[in-house]
Amino acid sequence: MRLNISYKKYLFLYLLIVSFTGVIRVNAQNFNQDLQKLQLAYKLVSTFYVDSVDNEKLVEDAIVGMLKNLDPHSEYLSKEEVKKLNEPLDGGFEGVGVQFNIMDDTLMVVSPISGGPSEKVGILAGDRIIFIDDENVAGIGLTNSGVKDRLKGKKGTKVKLKILRKGYSKLLDFTVERDKIPIYSVEATYMATKDVGYVKINQFSATTHKEFETALKTLNSQGMKNLILDLRGNPGGYLKAAIDVVDEFLEEDKVIVYTEGLTNPRREYRSSNGGLFKTGKVVVLINEGSASASEIVSGAVQDWDRGIILGRRSFGKGLVQRPLNLQDGSMIKLTIAKYYTPSGRCIQKPYDKGADAYRKEIYTRDILHSEDSVAADLPTYQTRTSNRLVYGGGGIKPDIFIAADTSGYSDYYRDIVALGVLNRFVLAYLDESRDMLSIKYDSYDEFLKKYEVGENMINQLVEEAKKEKITSDTKGLEVSLHLLKTQIKALIARNLWGVSEYFQTINPISEEFNKAIEVLSSEKSYTGLLN
User: Is 317 marked active-site?
Assistant: First the structure.
């Protein structure tokens, strides 16, 4: 029988999993029976089903079903999904290099990416892109995905843009040659105090370690003695990136993490003799959104008593996936091992109630009123230096618990943010006031000290919210006023300077951040927690 492409894919998958996992040890008779069963089911459906069948989708659905009952992280990805997945982890994509927003049904440049092709040809923040390759894109209901489809492309290809710029009566013509656009995983780097540095990592990609090295060198040159490493909301990424980040903190030949699985013997990853920050005090910020590679970092720092973990219990993902490429560009991410912290704990939380319950588990935690302690019957371990008690089986439990801060939260604030009113309001304000602000505040430090969000601006925001059918709420506004003002100022700072300035503006209202500064400022508190 001649096999079509869908069945070839199915057979390729079956052989790949069987040979990879070591199940090839089963006898040939069982193997042939399983394969014949797959073949027969496929042929019966494609031959006798009442309606026409998309054979490719039929096979893909079967693959999804095959993986569904393994664990929540083994999954099938189509060719298109693989491409989208790899862009942020590879540390870049190819395109024109602009941050954009769609405002009033018009594509607006929020800012050109520094050093990117759009900046090089003179495109500015606030420019409206009206035509892309002679196609009108204004007032047509353009979506974010539509913008990306038109502006992304292979390096070296060119795209023609017609731009409306404030102060010009005619459209301006630009030809932009697409190039590699970096995606940075170290989102913010700055000195929080005269001796405390701050670094935020949003994921662990191929470029994270190099970015982190650069950040440490910059902060060291500015007098950093202690460090806040912010991993809140970091979903993970590459194992090697996490290992290399931890390596900057530990002395030589210490276990950072080890992996082990049924067909994968124990493999240890140890620290080297290098490292840019082996002696200063460290506080790592985590929360329920910190997963996988973030837990490797925080687990190693905690287990070696190298620093304080502060915040809320991490997600609890201790499974290692290996990407297995199929012949058509699609991929299977298959769990092949578990990873263990230096004390020997696996922090993978249970998933026996199904994938849906597994993912929703973080929403059942009491993150407001208690320490969200892991269950008493979970296995306990001791840290490698001070023999402190730590837990396995449910995420990294912080040394200092900080409840989620809802003091400035209201339904009114939620609606303004969720419906995009706040972001659009700030963009519109900058569109009118960018030149004035640039002249008035020639540095971020001056802006941080002197700029204030006044009552008039808040009133304008309320009016914009009304246009979006958000009913005025005096009490809600009063509850969230300080948060809104800080958020507005931070968004302005991000657009005028960068993401580091955004966090430098917003962090002082974070309880986790302030507690980290407090702990790092007290030798007694810091050493007391570690001992």
Answer: yes
List the beta bridge partners of residue 100: 109
What distance separates the 2 farthest-apart alpha carbons in the chain? Answer: 80
Residues in the chain: 531
Q: What residue segments make up the domains of the chain, in order of their start?
A: 5-69, 92-182, 186-322+337-353+371-404, 411-509
186-322+337-353+371-404 CATH, one of 2.40.30.10, 3.40.220.10, 3.90.226.10, 3.40.50.720: 3.90.226.10
pTM of the model: 0.88
Options 179, 244, 247, 303, the catalytic residue: 303
Identify the active-site residue in 205, 292, 343, 410: 292
- 303 part of the active site: yes
Q: What is the mean pLDDT of residues 325-352?
A: 92
Question: What confidence tens digit (pLDDT) does each residue in 383-418 have?
Answer: 999 999 998 888 999 999 999 988 899 999 999 998
* Catalytic site residue from 317, 349, 397, 489: 317
Helix (H) or strand (E) holding 95: strand 92-95
CATH topology of domain 92-182: Pdz3 Domain (2.30.42)
Report DSSP state, residue 390.
E
Q: With contact defined as beta carbons under 8 Å apart, do 331 and 323 qualify? A: yes
